[in-house]
Design goal:
The protein has about 220 residues and is mostly helical. It has one domain. The protein is about 45% helix and about 0% strand. It starts with a helix and ends in a 26-residue tail after the last helix.
Length: about 220
């Protein structure tokens, strides 16, 4: 990375501040920013009952036990946490058990056999455990290509964390990091782009709706 300690401090701050409801003015960062900009903090399409989970901001990262909200945002956040674990021992001790728990929750309860994630089409993200409909006409199986790329990025970082720990633990990396990288690369990343490389396809439902030609 940059080897600048100020950048490391800032990265830690971003993670510690996310989901912190006791920040400036005893408010969440997202609420303060929306007020300053004159915007609506929580758009109406977000998950009912817990809309801040869309941003993975309903609680501090260290307290999160299940993957929630927008699947791409979630993968990119977790990848950033894994990057920090790779370069900072203190952050690794604090966040790696959380990351591993979130990964297990995703793979065991919120992932399709194809490796796809993000069953809820309405907010392009995670829903309740084991709710994995087959098609968009059922309200789900959005399984976005961008989210699959995020899974590959996260798995690659977690593998790096495991490999760097091998001399101390004498253990082997979790095989499902390998397997899910393969699933998402071949089932989503490659097929998500036309051969001309000029068009991109997002949703990857298992059960297709009535055929509609896309030029």
């Amino acid at each position: 990375m940059t080897h600048n300690p100020e950048h490391l401090r800032l990265a830690r701050f971003f993670l510690d501040e996310r989901g912190n409801h006791n920040g400036e003015g005893k408010k969440l960062y997202y609420e303060l920013e929306a007020k300053r900009r004159g915007e609506v903090a929580l758009p109406p399409h977000l998950p009912l009952g817990n809309p801040l989970s869309y941003y993975q901001a309903d609680r501090p990262v260290v307290s999160q036990t299940s993957v929630e909200g927008h699947s791409v945002r979630c993968m990119y956040l977790m990848t950033g946490v894994a990057d920090l674990c790779l370069i900072d021992r203190e952050s690794k001790q604090k966040y790696l058990p959380v990351l591993q728990g979130l990964w297990d929750n995703m793979v065991q309860k919120k992932m399709y056999l194809t490796g796809g994630i993000g069953a809820e089409a309405q907010w392009e993200g995670f829903s309740r455990d084991y709710w994995l409909p087959q098609g968009l006409d059922e309200g789900g199986c959005y399984a976005e290509t961008c989210a699959a790329i995020g899974v590959v990025m996260l798995a690659e970082r977690l593998l790096q964390v495991c490999v760097t720990a091998l001399p101390q633990t004498q253990s082997q990396p979790d095989n499902n990091y390998y397997h899910n990288t393969d699933d998402n690369y071949f089932n989503f990343s490659i097929v998500g782009t036309k051969r001309t490389l000029r068009r991109h396809y997002g949703a990857k439902s298992i059960q297709r709706p009535p055929y509609r030609h896309v030029p």
